[in-house]
Amino acid sequence: MDDFEITNPMYTNRIKKILEENYRIKSIEIEHDMIEAEPGQFLMVWIPGLGERPMSIANNRPLTISVANVGTVSGELHKLKQGEQISYRGPLGRPFDLGLQYKTELKCKTTQCVSTENSKFENKCDCCCGIDEASKQESGHPKLGTGNPKHILTIGGGYGVVPMYFLCKTAREHGIDAYAIIGGRCEKDVVYEKHLFVVCKEVFVTTDDGSRGKKGTVMAEFEWLIKEKKFDWVYTCGPEKMMKAIAEKCVELKIPCQVSLERHMKCGTGVCGSCAINGMLTCKDGPVFDAEQVLKFSEFGKVSRDGCGNRKEM
Known about the structure:
Elements: E1 10-20, E2 25-30, E3 42-47, E4 51-56, E5 59-60, E6 63-68, H1 72-79, E7 85-92, H2 133-139, E8 151-157, H3 162-173, E9 177-184, H4 193-199, E10 202-207, E11 214-215, H5 218-228, E12 233-237, H6 240-253, E13 257-260, E14 276-277, E15 280-281, E16 288-290, H7 291-294, E17 303-305, E18 311-313
Parallel strand pairs: 8-9, 8-12, 9-10, 10-11, 12-13
Antiparallel strand pairs: 1-2, 1-7, 2-6, 3-4, 3-7, 5-6, 13-16, 14-15, 17-18
Helix pairs in contact: 5-6
């Protein structure tokens, strides 16, 4: 039997601050700088007696999650107060690729090596430098993009806006210009607009009823924007039908695109299989996938599954 190694222990830390984002979303800042976390990754947050739920990482310094009050676990999270404790595992999953050098998923397999100041990888040894593509594939997190983007576009619908802040913040820290499109049903559903204005070159807002920003969907704004500006890479998270339309358009225009999927998760480590989609595990192989890859999934944009594994038409 293969050895099983726990690489993501359970943390328990105090809540530093709670922010009201809108009428049903709260952001919880935790007294923990999770410097190893990368945009697109997630936590499994634990409520004793109720279980765990996956939560996108909204920021790593300080570690932040944004919680929509839509169920039993999220409802209990909304009851937590500043100074109380919260437990979680992470970071988990495959992150977005910004063309940066790897920090967390590659481990040196050489038993005799010494870390030096010249190491290209943070907290890694010199023999990890210049790791080849085969090793990246073996790590489980091969690069999704090629080259180094200078201008990126992020598109978030609904709660999918949350991980885009962490992505745009990281892009800015590395000299990459980030633009953001965020969408909601109406003005009260729009979140993270002010946060994104701090880290993006421009932010575009759409609502279905026109109560905030432009009236219409993010897709209409996206199609207009890609004609006005040149983007090296596109990233999207939100309703799956929205992401499918964006992925199809990017493939048509030959713009590299990365998609963050959401599926029902129980373990977050690839053991239970509840988050499977066409043979891939969202928690381990994703949640971030390349657009061309997800468009080959027959269930993408059409079918999801509940906690019992039953198929649900979208």
